## 1
Amino acid sequence: MEGNPVSIASKKQSPKSRLNEARRATAHRISHPMVRLLAKTGVTPNVLTWLGLLLSFGAAVLIALRQPFIAGFVVLFAGLFDMLDGALARFTDRITRFGAILDSTLDRLSEVVILLGLLIFFVTDLSVPGILIVGFTMPGALLVSYLRARTEAAGLPGEVGLFTRTERVIILSLGLLLSGIDYALLISLGIIAVFSYLTIMQRLLHAWRQTRRD
């Protein structure tokens, strides 16, 4: 008896592949109803990308003004726009090379702006641990995205690793929403930092395995 080819194929998938598929399936379930509505409005994917950046600026200002709870919701909302722009581009067949470049660039800028807002937050609070952990988190978060872009530019699959931008947004939002609890924000940033550097190592190892025959 041969069995179901789909189930056989799924058994052969690596844990990394299953994780990526789970991310894509979850994003599709969340974004698809909203994308169908957005497609009827005529709004373009690039407009959503810019709106996501503006929301990130707003979140950074709220954080700097010591309003982390409200900022947590804004960060989540900005993350939703980050998911919707690509989904809308695929749904409306508006995928362009410039759109992908713009999306990647503004995503990095959004992360930097929010982390700078956190840096101001900790500086005004005279929190040395907070300042240090933001300084440690920023390059890690950026390198995760850079490695994916650089690997894919070399013609290799780059979407591997435990912690992508989605996970960083969720953990940071939780930290902001729970900031009334002692050390919650520091813990969330620590999680982001540790798992970002683990993801960097995963992606470097993946790239090395893909290129070692060169």
## 2
Amino acid sequence: MADAERRRVLFVEDEQALQISYQRFFRPRFEMEFAGTGAEAMAQLESQAPDVLVLDMRLPDTDGIELLRKIRSLHPDLPVIITTAYLSIEPQLQVLDLGYSGYIVKPFDLDELGAAIDAAG
């Protein structure tokens, strides 16, 4: 598949080990960018438009829900896949009506994440 046809995915994840895992596993499938903080994610969203955003709910500089609110206000149609270690946050996201395309609880299988990215949008 040519690069032009590969989906562009922005991974918002502060754990370097996970970033490395994503790079190794998804390199053949996706064009990837990484942000380790909410501020980096917002800056990258201003400069480029990913096809899908994978958002970790726990970041060092912001609450994931607040970041998702900001993303939704600027990019209402961007598919967002939530990754989190917390089962309990999904009902809160639904109540707040913050749309998302997938919700995966850590630890998860990378094939599961890849399937969610493929299905998003």
